[in-house]
Amino acid sequence: MKEAKTSVMQSNAVITAIGTYVPERILTNADLEKLVDTNDEWIIQRTGIKERRIAGDMQFTSHLCFKAVLNMVERYGADVSDVDYIITATSTPDAVFPSVSSQVQAHFGIADCGAADIQAACAGFASAIQLANGLLLSGAYHKILVIGAETLSKITDYTDRTTCILFGDGAGAFLIEASDDGNGDILSVYAKTDGSRGHLLYRSSLSPSLDGHDLLENGYIVQNGREVYRWAVSHVSEGINQLIGRSQLSVDEIDWFIPHSANMRIIESLCERTGFPLSRTLSSIQRFGNTSAASIPLAIDQAVQAGKITSGQLLLLYGFGGGLTQSGVVLRWSI
Ligand code: COA
User: Fold this and answer.
1) Residue 171 phi/psi, 5° resolution?
2) Which residue would you say has higher pLDDT here, 247 or 207?
3) Which of 87, 99, 194, 275 could pair covalently with 117 via S-S, beta carbons 3.0-4.6 A apart?
């Protein structure tokens, strides 16, 4: 049996800048009422979502990433010219290849830079932070751009009222650098996967539909909402408690809880089962809907800009979704 790791783990990774971007077009619940048989009251009561952002027809995930990184450069004076690795977490790359990360490298003309996308659905951003921490700790790289970005509107079926009310588009980026003194901000990590439940939430591409139905050709998101909800409330709350245990911190010592913005009702249940009060919980669900890999940096940046998150505070980030995947990080915010 594998030993449970109760680490306060090794890290030399310091988050030095954040940037975000959402497309200008807003899709409100009233707009959705014109597309499908739904209503504002039902959507707010079941999900907490008021509106989402939708990319233009010719605006793809890489374009959102360019703007998020530019936002970081403008706000923090961040220098990305010497970034030596780019990791983009996305389920909606412009193309299978070239990667979104490669396009970011080209856009900013970054020389001597590795680039790779990862796909862990809504657990993507926390997974990418974990990978970046390992790469920095190895000594092989010194400055990494970690991006979570999606254009989920391009894979959403706007005739299906059970999914189209949920998803939106956006991007968020962290610049993560190796510290000179070896003291990093990543305090603990946790990840868990249950591939046997993969058919509950998927987007088919080359494979037949995962839930035993006919071959799905349209490439839209398919989910069993009720089962995903059940899984999130029970299994994800267990995962978060595992991560809290590994951090050797109490819930009271962690300043902010940032679960993936899947659904406000799920977030409320996670709070109940982990002990985090809603007053110390951040989400981007109300304004942006479920933006998958982008939801956590969007929620963090809203709080940074509102002056809620300040330097020295401890954050617990927790992504969960398609796979079914879970991935979390406890980190110190030192910007
Ligand atoms: N507007 C109005 N009615 C709707 C609707 C909509 N947009 N979508 C579904 N309904 C109806 C259903 O047809 C059903 O009607 P019926 O009772 O007459 O059959 C009723 O509402 C209840 O449907 P159900 O699917 O049981 O709703 P729910 O309470 O489970 O809520 C979700 C649906 C999708 C909001 C909810 O299951 C959910 O959020 N699941 C998690 C999804 C998620 O977060 N996925 C991403 C994870 S990263």
Assistant:
1) -150, 145
2) 247
3) 99
